[in-house]
Amino acid sequence: MNIGQAANASGVSAKMIRYYESTGLIAPAGRTQSNYRVYGAEDVHTLRFIKRARTLGFSMDETAALLGLWQDKSRASADVKRIADAHIAELEQKIAELRAMTDTLKHLVHCCAGDNRPDCPILEDLAQSDAPERMNA
Q: 13: part of which helix (H) or strand (E)?
């Protein structure tokens, strides 16, 4: 199948397939006499694996590591679990940061009268460079 068909079958855009090839995440596709890329069922399966990993938020490096482990039938599941556990910790940290931002914004919105007066606690908070609630932006 050509790149468009592989994209449709895998759910990964042709642009991303080319990108994955350029970064070495996937091996370059075979080529026809006319220099068109040719993909097979295994390539599509690999692209689906990558898409699922990326959908779960794994970085490109983590995805590459997981892909390598997936392709290595002698792998230790502990290696896979270690990567997933580290990713869970990163996600939980991000969730905590998002909750803190949400809580801060809810408080500021609650304190804002939202009327025609110019004073606004939301803008006042944004103008404070040393606000303790501030995240590292």
A: none
CB atoms within 10 A of CB 36: 11
List the structure tokens of 16: 């991303």
pLDDT tens digit sequence for 29-75: 999 999 999 999 999 999 999 999 999 999 999 999 999 999 999 99
> What is the chain's Cα-based Rg?
23
Residue that is written with structure tokens 């392709």 in the block: 71
pLDDT band at 92 (very low <50, low <70, confident <90, very high): very high
**Domain covering 3-57: architecture:** Orthogonal Bundle (1.10)
User: For the chain, what percentages of helix, strand and coil (3-state, to nearest 5) are there?
Assistant: 65, 5, 35
Report the 10 Å Cβ neighbour count for 26.
20
